[in-house]
Write a structure and sequence with these properties.
By secondary structure, the chain is α+β, with helices and mostly antiparallel strands. Helices cover 33% and strands 31% of the residues. The chain has 4 helices and 5 strands. A 5-stranded mixed sheet has the order 3-1-2-4-5. β4 and β5 form a beta hairpin. α2 runs antiparallel to α4. The longest helix has 17 residues. The chain starts with a strand and ends with a strand. It binds nickel (II) ion. The site of nickel (II) ion has 4 residues, from β2. The site of nickel (II) ion (NI) has 4 residues, from β2.
Length: 137
């Protein structure tokens, strides 16, 4: 089994906000992260896949193909967008990195399987001090 990680960057706006809670409850729980006028992050996404080396190519997977899948299904939908308002896979969810990691997993898992390999990990760096890792369960 071999592991390969592709890194992609995106910038997005969000607001930590739970539907059904009052503004004051959201403010109490999420503090500045619930600013009604939004704020943004420069996110770094790490997608780790795993599988066996193709004996003909010597590759686990063609990196151009993997990069295209990530860009078309994730980056183009979220880069320079408002996560709360315009990103289909975050619809109705609190815009946390935790939910983002799970959502990106759900988007990419079937696409990666079609390449004959498995998704292993989604890692999201929201700031240089904080990152989230999700392994699919
Ligand atoms: Ni934030």
């Amino acid at each position: 089994m071999i592991y390969l990680t592709r890194r992609e960057k995106f910038s997005a706006a969000h607001r930590m906000y739970k539907n059904g809670w009052s503004d004051s409850k959201n403010q109490e729980v999420f503090g500045d992260c619930s600013n009604p006028n939004w704020h943004g992050h420069n996110y770094i996404l790490f997608v780790t896949v795993k599988g066996n080396i193709n004996s003909e190519t010597g590759y686990l997977v063609n990196l151009k193909t993997l990069g295209s899948i990530i860009r078309e299904n994730v980056i183009q939908k979220i880069d320079h967008k408002n996560m709360n308002l315009e990103v289909d896979f975050m619809n109705g969810k609190v815009a946390s990195s935790e939910n983002l990691a799970v959502s990106i997993w759900e988007v990419l898992d079937p696409k990666v399987k079609m390449l004959g390999i498995e998704l292993h990990k989604i890692k999201i760096e929201e700031t240089e001090n904080n990152f989230i890792e999700y392994f699919g369960k």
